[in-house]
Amino acid sequence: MRCKPNNSARFRHQASAGFSLIELLIVVAIILIIAAIAIPNFIRAKISANEAATVANMRYICTAEVTYSTTYSIGFSAALLNLGGTGAATSTSAGLIDDILANGIRSGYQYSYVPTFPDPYGKFQSYTLNAQPQNVGSTGQRYFYTDQSGVIRQNITTVATSADSPI
């Protein structure tokens, strides 16, 4: 004898075959809550990474300046571009730093290099190097400064100077 299929079981199976609109909205709401928590943390991590890279780049430039000064015996470089370059090393294309950094922009920061105090022969005896975020709050929070002393200083509100606290 053959049993008749139970119609109520068939309908229950069809009703549970998919997700209801409420269930989908709950899942979307949970994803949005997780994203709202994660995105600010990601931005803070990116800012922190950019600042760490900037400090490393400033140390790199200071080392390149000392190398440039001792190699060419003409004082510090006249421009940040002189530290970059490829091919045969010269005093205008020393190849000590990469060309992106030599152009003054890297890791969300803009670098400003100014040679100072030329002697009677035109050799620069010192320099200043500032790094400021391209978009404050997005690419970085702090401003950095260094000079021929190699001490890197920071300021959290405005362009850093030699009077600011060292890091």
Q: What does the model show?
A:
- With 167 residues, the chain is of the alpha+beta class.
- It has one domain (20-166).
- The chain contains 3 helices and 6 strands.
- It has helices spanning 7-15, 21-72, 99-102; strands at 105-106, 109-118, 124-133, 143-147, 153-155, 165-166.
- A 6-stranded antiparallel sheet has the order 1-2-3-4-5-6.
- The longest helix is centred in the first third of the chain and has 52 residues, at 21-72.
* pLDDT averaged residue by residue: 90
Using the CA coordinates, give the radius of gyration.
Answer: 29 Å
Secondary structural class: alpha+beta
What does the largest sheet look like? 6 strands, antiparallel
Task: Name the features.
167 residues, 6-stranded antiparallel sheet, 3 helices
What is this entry, summarized?
The protein is of the alpha+beta class. The protein contains three helices and six strands. The protein has helices at 7-15, 21-72, 99-102, and strands spanning 105-106, 109-118, 124-133, 143-147, 153-155, 165-166.
Tell me the layout of helices and strands.
Blueprint: H1 7-15, H2 21-72, H3 99-102, E1 105-106, E2 109-118, E3 124-133, E4 143-147, E5 153-155, E6 165-166
Antiparallel strand pairs: 1-2, 2-3, 3-4, 4-5, 5-6
